[in-house]
Amino acid sequence: MPTATKKTASRNTAPGKAAPRKRPATKTATAPAVTARAKQSSKAAGPKAALKTFDADALWALARVGAPSLSPDGAQAVVPVTRFDMEKNRGATSLWLLSTLGGDPRPLTSAGEKDGQPRWSPQGDLVAFIARRDQEGDKDEAPQLYLIPPDGGEARRVTRMPFGVEAFKWFPDGKRLAFVSWVDPALRGQAAQAERRKAEKDRKDSAYVTEEGFYRFWDHALPMGRVPHLHVVDLDSGKVRDLFEGTDYELSRAEPDADSFDISPDGRRIVFSFDPNTPKTLEHRNALAEIEVRSGRAQVLLREPAWDFVAPVYSHAGQHIAFIACHQGLKHTMPQQLAVLDTHGHWAVLSEDWDQEVAAPLRWDEDDLGVLFCAEERGRRHLYRFDVKTLHAFPLCEGGHVGAFALEAGTLVVLHDSASFPPRLSVVDREGDAQDQVLHRIESFNDAALSTLAFGAVEERWYEGALGEPVQMWLYYPPGFDPKKKAKAPLMHLIHGGPHTAMGDSWHWRWNHQAMASAGYVVACVNYHGSSSFGNRFADSITGRWGELELEDVERATDLLLQQPWADPKRVFATGGSYGGYMVAWMNGHVPAGRYQAYVCHAGCYDWTAMFANDAYLWHAKELGTAYWKDPAKVASQSPIGYAQHFNTPTLVIHGQLDYRVPDAQGLAYYNTLKAQGIAARLVWFPDENHWVMKPRNSKLWYGEFFDWLKRHDGAGAGGKRRRG
Ligand SMILES: CSCC[C@H](NC=O)C(=O)N[C@@H](C)C(=O)N[C@@H](CO)C(=O)O
């Protein structure tokens, strides 16, 4: 059992010290030993076949494997697999069954449908999933819950929720499901919700009217007057109960998922994370509550105004709840930590001395003595087991990048990727040390395609950055790159967003490093000051002085790379998205003309005052160190718009109209400013994309525009000159 001592907000002490863990190798991107248990036909290219260039078409032709769910005996995994059709400009997700012991994969649902979030029943007799289907003329207007036996047959619809289903979990008895649906909290019963749905549909006006502080998220307006409630459906009768009906409880309005609640092992209680404040904002700190399923009685388990509590999960014995705690009242950049609550209401942060961020979901190990989760470490993401007695974090699977995992009956499956391969599924051999870890592949959906493509080398480098501190950079080389060749290579910075994220040895479906390197660029990804995965001090170091240290880190990397004999000083570029777009706009106002031949600014933040129109507007002030009405000069001094008179470099500006995180007015203002000053600029504006470009044809166009722009400015002349558009 974990040691859980009484916790107070003022004294943040854990019951012990986290033991130091072994460091992974850091010089080059290394892969664990891999064996193949998959028995798919792998039509690998013959040894003499010429490898093809990895471009946007090749990227979109790859299968996208999603998070696995394991059968209770651990023998099979069910996974969603999405394939896109560039011609038709759309994707289709179907479910596949994979043996964890070796064997052929089997399609469980047929392609053409969007079948997602599969979860195996605790008894192993059914797989539940969420889909929007048209079955024999009965068409879902919103996604619903479906059941299918793993040995095949027709999928059966189990809900007809007027406003659809977002996420779900099985009750241990396998007879009920708990799920999330957005409902009008003032109404009672499903019939009333259905009426409300009809009224919404029949509405002739279109205005969004609100007094809420949190009313839009990412790319959509939150439903007017509806909130996410937890429901239970009985599979035999189809009867649905809204567990929050008549209460003020609701789940997070920011895309509530299955990590926001958990069902106790005896099926009697559900713990959930909720925002206790009114009105809601994206920046509020969540509390934990528990509801008794039969009576519907709920009580707050844990609420501390200075802390944010999310992602609760019961131990197998039901005596403890592991959750993620973040001491935001102390500092807004505080890491997410592992915490445990016991039945007496005592709680403790267990990972306090571990300078890494714990990511949801959490999963108790089978002995209830450890908790499994993923966490970033220096540009990589590993799966850890955190021992709740010794407070030691042990890596079970080192990335690359571990994106998801599932554990049943001693079988541990990971969804993992690296800079050189997209997400794939493997069984982790838990015997021995992670250093010598052995992974057994259980599918090979992309192996045939990958074997025909040329990929370049990936290198991790460290150098002295701002403040004289070590900074990590990843270099992605073009396929066949030979540093000794006479021909010089162009250099391209690909600057990550956040700012508190990191780039590293991972696959990226939108900004694919390999696709960029395949176009001939040496791609540099600097994990500048402020990046996640290097400890809290590093992440927090840029607070109140955005732009400053990050620029120095990027510039020092450029200096270093330009010293390489292969680097072409006439073909140096910087590109970035989101906060990375902010960085290239910042560079345009701070770096002398001619240093970089061109920039690409995707969804870049340009003006932190106008950014108050975004969906996370309360977050900026914490990062910038002030609000614009308190200290306008300080906010302006951290905004590229404040340096517009110094802009000098040709820029491709890309933005999506559905981007509520960085509203498109940011990109348009930047583009207009460049144009007004006669600086070469081009605008690519998508009316139907959000912060990211998600549609195959738009993505292909994006890559085309991106490379065309760099080519047009690749040094054959005006380096150093201000270019007229
Ligand atoms: C994880 S760091 C903070 C995320 C931040 N939250 C609120 O605004 C954010 O969304 N920042 C964007 C400006 C951004 O840079 N987003 C990046 C990475 O999260 C992106 O690629 O979308």
How would you describe this structure to a colleague?
This protein has a domain at 458-712: Alpha/Beta hydrolase fold, catalytic domain (Rossmann fold, 3-Layer(aba) Sandwich), CATH 3.40.50. Strand 17 and strand 18 (240-242) form a beta hairpin. Helices cover 14% and strands 32% of the residues. An eight-stranded mixed sheet has the order 35-36-38-37-39-40-41-42, sandwiched between helices. The chain contains eleven helices and 42 strands. It has 725 residues and is of the alpha+beta class. The structure holds the ligand CSCC[C@H](NC=O)C(=O)N[C@@H](C)C(=O)N[C@@H](CO)C(=O)O. Residues 497-498, 500-501, 577-579, 605, 616, 619, 661-662, 691 line the site of ligand LLCC2GWJ.
| Regions with little confidence, pLDDT below 50 for 5+ residues | 1-31, 39-45, 717-721
Q: State the helical fraction.
A: 10-25%
Largest sheet: 8 strands, mixed
CATH class of one domain: Alpha Beta
Tell me the radius of gyration: 26 Å
Shape: globular
Enumerate how many helices there are, as a single number.
11
User: Could you state the CATH homologous superfamily of one domain?
Assistant: Alpha/Beta hydrolase fold, catalytic domain
Q: Count all strands and give the number.
A: 42
Tell me, rounded to a whole number, the average pLDDT.
92
Structural class: alpha+beta
Looking across the biggest beta sheet, what order are the strands in? 35-36-38-37-39-40-41-42
Question: What's the CATH architecture of one domain?
Answer: 3-Layer(aba) Sandwich
Fold-level CATH name of one domain: Rossmann fold
> Strand portion, in percent?
25-35%
* End-to-end Cα distance: 67 Å
Bound molecules: ligand LLCC2GWJ
